[in-house]
Design brief:
By secondary structure, this protein is of the alpha+beta class. It has eight helices and ten strands.
């Protein structure tokens, strides 16, 4: 969480005009969008468009996040993070505050979108996320604070995007920001060193979070607890092995995890067809048995009638003699 003194220094009211010291662009604050450990993000109006403006009195933090956004721009084919639009300083009565302006990404967060559109969208969006993470990892970065709260679904066409790059860390360094539920260190399943496996653990926890929207508390806080929680949810069963492998750091890359998940998804129709065929065969067998039983019953009835008729005829014949 952000400390109160920093929040107070960066706190501005709607209608406030933020003018850059160097570029002289003027931004009108509309409302606060959120705040974290290193600053406050506002929705602002710039000319005829809405933008997201983040301000902080920590210039090093701003510089770091700006470098991340610049790196994102170099990742060809990836739209994981917002586009960087401006970087500047704002001079006001209490001193100087650094800020940067980025694309305002609109849409529901990941959990809200899936609750509205349905469970099948989980697979589509997670596969998208893994594709973008793989490109990010290949460029030497780890996202770090990966969680549904930071993931927005835009569209159409529906596309998963991230609205907070504050936790993005160069591989090999200590993770800068994290949220406990999605942090492998919190669950005793790894370190907080920035590597691809750190993000993949978070992706597995995002899948679990989709099934448990209110999350759950740590008890034993180990693999056994997470396995137990996964096994209790029907919607997680088809990719439980993918989840278990990523929680235990068995995937070397996001692409490897994506391939495993894709294979699991593609295998589901075959499994469903096999189950349907088995049910149909059982149904046919039951119907054949019923038909045979009916035919057998008719034959038995005819046989009994014939026997009774013959006995009656012998009785009559005996009486006549």
């Amino acid at each position: 969480m952000m400390n109160h003194s920093l929040k107070n220094q960066c706190k501005v009211n709607p209608g406030t005009i933020i003018e850059g010291k160097w570029h002289h662009n003027r931004y009108t604050i509309v409302k606060e969008l959120g705040y974290g450990a290193n600053g406050i993000v506002y929705l602002a109006q710039f000319r005829n468009q809405q933008v997201a403006l983040k301000m902080s009195d920590n210039g090093l933090s701003i510089t770091s996040e700006v470098n991340v956004l610049k790196s994102f721009a170099k990742v060809q084919g990836s739209a994981l993070g917002p586009s960087l639009l401006d970087v500047d300083d704002w001079i006001h009565r209490n001193g100087q505050i650094s800020f940067y302006v980025m694309e305002y990404i609109q849409g529901p967060d990941l959990l809200t979108f899936i609750q509205q559109k349905g469970q099948p969208w989980t697979e589509v969006l997670i596969l998208q996320l893994l594709t973008d993470l793989d490109k990010l990892h290949q460029n030497g970065w780890v996202f770090g604070d990966l969680k549904p709260d930071n993931l927005i679904v835009t569209g159409p066409p529906s596309k998963i995007r991230c609205i907070d790059v504050g936790g993005t860390t160069i591989q090999g360094r200590a993770i800068k920001e994290f949220t406990e539920f999605f942090d492998r260190g919190y669950w005793g399943l790894g370190t907080r060193k920035a590597d691809p496996g750190y993000d993949l653990f978070a992706v597995a926890m995002i899948l679990i979070n989709i099934a448990y929207p209110k999350r759950f508390n740590k008890t034993s806080g180990d693999m056994k607890q997470l396995e137990s929680m996964v096994r209790q949810k029907k919607e997680l069963q088809k990719y439980k092995e993918v989840i278990f492998n990523s929680l235990q750091g068995k995937y070397g890359s996001a692409q490897e995890m994506r391939n495993a998940m894709l294979q699991t998804i593609q295998a589901q129709p075959d499994k469903i067809n096999q189950q349907a065929q088995a049910r149909n065969q059982a149904k046919v067998s039951r119907q054949s048995y019923i038909k045979k039983k009916k035919r057998g019953g008719i034959f038995e009835t005819i046989l009994i009638v014939l026997i009774i008729s013959l006995l009656y005829m012998f009785y009559i014949y005996g009486q006549l003699i």
